[in-house]
Write a structure and sequence with these properties.
Elements (H helix, E strand, L loop, with lengths): L12 H4 L2 H10 L2 H9 L7 H7 L4 H22 L6 H20 L3 H18 L5 H15 L3 H19 L4 H16 L3 H17 L6 H25 L1
Helix pairs in contact: 2-5, 5-6, 5-7, 6-7, 7-8, 8-9, 8-10, 9-10, 10-11, 10-12, 11-12
Length: 240
């Protein structure tokens, strides 16, 4: 089940945690820190405590515990004001990025999606033109694709593709990856010929990439495109 991010969910933070996560927090916090987490989980004084303990929780309650604590701090900072320093916020954002990527790699993209969305809100609010927003938009679109939420993924991927081309080059790995994701997206929406055209375009970019890609990387992308072609064949068969 995906973890939703909204202000009402942060009011009873301690009570909302599973028992193993509470036990993990209790085992690594001082009495003073534990009291702050239980009574004032949204305060500017408590958030740095949660930031610090989150990575340690991987060994106590596993990835879900790590995820629950970081999503709480993200939720508070997106919806409320915080006195976190720029350096501390950057460190926290790096942890969140790692968390979302780990969820995606495990196939838990429903868990990754709210993290990507939260990070995108943070960076867009800070600087709408930041190049970081391109990577976040692409990652969110990819997570949506992995959940077959193609109608939500398509506008994100179409928006980010020309910006990636402008900033990184038309034969860059990011652009080729985006073409692959967009091909799956439009194919999943039933536009199979358009999907095939995007695959061919992606393969042409691979041929033109030259030294930008190693032979191994080129082969890996061809395998990814082949995977989309197999999906298109399955969708085409199902439509008959």
């Amino acid at each position: 089940m995906a973890v939703e991010l909204h202000a009402s969910s942060i009011l009873n933070f301690w009570e909302s945690l599973p028992s193993d996560t509470r036990e993990g927090i209790t085992s690594i916090c001082s009495e003073e820190e534990l009291k702050a987490i239980q009574e004032l989980p949204n305060s500017d004084e408590t958030l740095p405590i949660l930031d610090k303990l989150a990575p340690t929780l991987i060994g106590k309650g596993g990835l879900p515990a790590f995820s629950q604590v970081l999503l709480h701090t993200l939720d508070v900072r997106v919806n409320c004001s915080s006195k976190l320093s720029a350096a501390e916020q950057a460190k926290n954002n790096d942890l969140l990025w790692r968390l979302a990527a780990e969820h995606d790699s495990r196939g838990d993209s429903d868990q990754a999606e709210p993290v990507w969305r939260g990070l995108l809100r943070i960076y867009t609010k800070k600087d709408p033109q930041s190049p970081t927003n391109l990577g976040l938009t692409y990652n969110l679109g990819r997570s949506l694709n992995m959940q077959a939420k193609y109608d939500e993924a398509e506008p994100l991927l179409k928006k980010v593709l020309p910006k990636l081309e402008e900033n990184l080059g038309k034969e860059s790995q990011q652009v080729i990856g985006c073409l692959r994701e967009l091909a799956e997206c439009v194919g999943g929406l039933g536009r199979l010929e358009e999907a095939r055209a995007l695959i061919e375009e992606g393969k042409e970019r691979l041929s033109d990439a030259g030294a930008m890609l190693s032979e191994k990387e080129r082969e890996e992308y061809l395998v990814l495109f082949k995977g989309v072609e197999m999906k298109i064949s399955a969708w085409e068969f199902a439509a008959k």
